[in-house]
Amino acid sequence: MKILVVDDEEDVKSLFEQKFRREIRGGQFEFSFAFSGEEALEYMQNHPSEVVMILSDINMPGMSGIELLKRIRTDHPSAPPQVMMITAYGDAANHDQAMQLGADDFLTKPVNFNELKEKLLLL
Amino acid sequence: MHFIVAFFLVQFAQQAMQHTDKLPKWANFFKYARYYVFMLLAVYYIAKQPDMFTWVWNVSLLGLLLVFYKEEDFQPIRSTAQSIVPFVGVSMLSDFLELVFPSFHKSYDDFFGMALLFAWIFCFVIWFYARKQQKALAQERRDRLRDEEIAREQKQSLEYLVAERTQELTQQKEELQKAIEELKATQNQLIQSEKMASLGELTAGIAHEIQNPLNFVNNFSEVSVELCQELDEEIDKTGIDDNDKDYIKGIISDLSQNQQKITHHGKRADSIVKGMLQHSRASSGEKEPVDVNALADEYMRLAYHGLRAKDKEFNAALTTDFDATIGTVKVLPQDLGRVFLNLFTNAFYAVAEKKRKLTEAGQLGDYKPEVKISTKKFDNKLYIRVSDNGTGMPEHVKAKIFQPFFTTKPTGQGTGLGLSMSYDIITNGHGGVLEVDTIDGEKTEFRITIPIA
């Protein structure tokens, strides 16, 4: 299962790689990383219909996670990937907006990796 | 003749003196002068009217005149008194001539008699005239007095008006001063709450900025612990010498412990950051009708048992004075609960600290820790007081207690956010007031005032 993680923090990459070391090794998950919304869209253009799941931060410089979500829902209506939003601002307004725009799930930072792992394994 | 002149002169002088303020001083003088005149008259008749007695009269009259001239007090009657000079002069001249040149006097007797009569009449004409003048003067004086009286009355009424106006102005001044003081107090309060608000925002901003790197610290340290575990497992699969294996495992164990320490302290920092974030979080949920007494009671017990769980020795008298008429009040129950929890936790901490200090000093005596809560509804306002007989606070501590991160508790025991958050909840969340009164070493009282819509 290919998962694209979108976050402006580059350390997210090594964190995910270490946290999901066993799953990656076992071939359950395959992670790709994009460090901005723009990069994420570009990646999706280059790898159409590969990404099953997108984990995106909301607060990013440039294109925000919400904008990215909007673009994904409009640009890729067919074979839509699952989108999970992750944010430090877990308030109701943010949550409602993301869900309204078609997010499949909503997580607040700090991410509980055990919970995330379970959710991902369910897919 | 002489008697009449003398009698009227005294009479006249006394009357004239009545218009001045010198009379009392001379009252006796006039009395004796009058006696003297009557005595002379009596002696004159008893002595069978001797001719030479006119000398006595004349000398007496001159003596009187001399007194009038000697004393400054008689200034106003001098000119009139002078009118007797011709009479006395003619009388003396006549007597003198009669004595020295009897024949000459005899031939001009009629002439002298006439002269004496004219002089005598002259006296009375002058006196009469002077009297009239005096009367006119008296009238004038009375008029003047009346004018003065009127003027004085006007002055008095003016003074009264002035006094009245002055009082009005003074009152206005005092009111203005009071208004200024109130304004200053309000300004201070505004500055204070503004400071708190901006500090709160700053706190929240900092918290957000810290949270992301802190998440990394926690996540990486956690994952590192897992990696160490994995490494530990993998080592067993290799064929390394047991001694080396144990050495390597020892290092891995230390690394793992270090990572656990990082996680532990990272979590600590995380809970502080969470507290800071709660600070800024716009009041959660809606206001709802709440039984404030029950809420306060619940959190009082919660705080008490929270402390008891940590310190079995601890105990304190819990006194409640609830106003049963309050019923339910629309508040933010969770937020207000947090305020209660903070205030009670602090109160219990204060009494526990005092007890500890007294015990250390061996002066416990009959100190009984007591924490009190009272509620009151009055004039559409809810008053809540939380007081304790604990350590109290010195002025410099009192000035800072509502500032974020200010704490007097030992490191790790307090975040310094409790009261700052409570302040925020009461002022911004409920539009109320949170005040504190304290006496260092004796007691502390927190007063919450919340307007009820």
TrEMBL record, chain A:
It comes from the Bacteria. GO terms for biological process: phosphorelay signal transduction system. PROSITE patterns: RESPONSE_REGULATORY. Pfam families: Response_reg. Residues 2-123 form the Response regulatory domain. The keyword Phosphoprotein applies. Signal peptide: none annotated. InterPro entries: Bact_response_regulator, CheY-like_superfamily, Sig_transdc_resp-reg_receiver. The modification 4-aspartylphosphate is found at residue 57. Keywords: Phosphoprotein. This is Response regulator receiver domain-containing protein. It comes from Dyadobacter soli. The lineage of its organism: Bacteria, Pseudomonadati, Bacteroidota, Cytophagia, Cytophagales.
Automatic annotation (TrEMBL), chain B:
It catalyses: ATP + protein L-histidine = ADP + protein N-phospho-L-histidine. Pfam families: HATPase_c (PF02518). SUPFAM superfamilies: ATPase domain of HSP90 chaperone/DNA topoisomerase II/histidine kinase, Homodimeric domain of signal transducing histidine kinase. Residues 162-196 form a coiled coil. It is an enzyme of class 2 (transferase). The chain crosses the membrane at residues 28-47, 52-69, 111-130. Residues 205-453 form the Histidine kinase domain. The keyword Kinase applies. Keywords: Coiled coil, Kinase, Membrane, Phosphoprotein, Transferase, Transmembrane, Transmembrane helix. Gene3D superfamilies: 1.10.287.130, Histidine kinase-like ATPase, C-terminal domain. Its EC number is 2.7.13.3. This is histidine kinase. It comes from Dyadobacter soli.
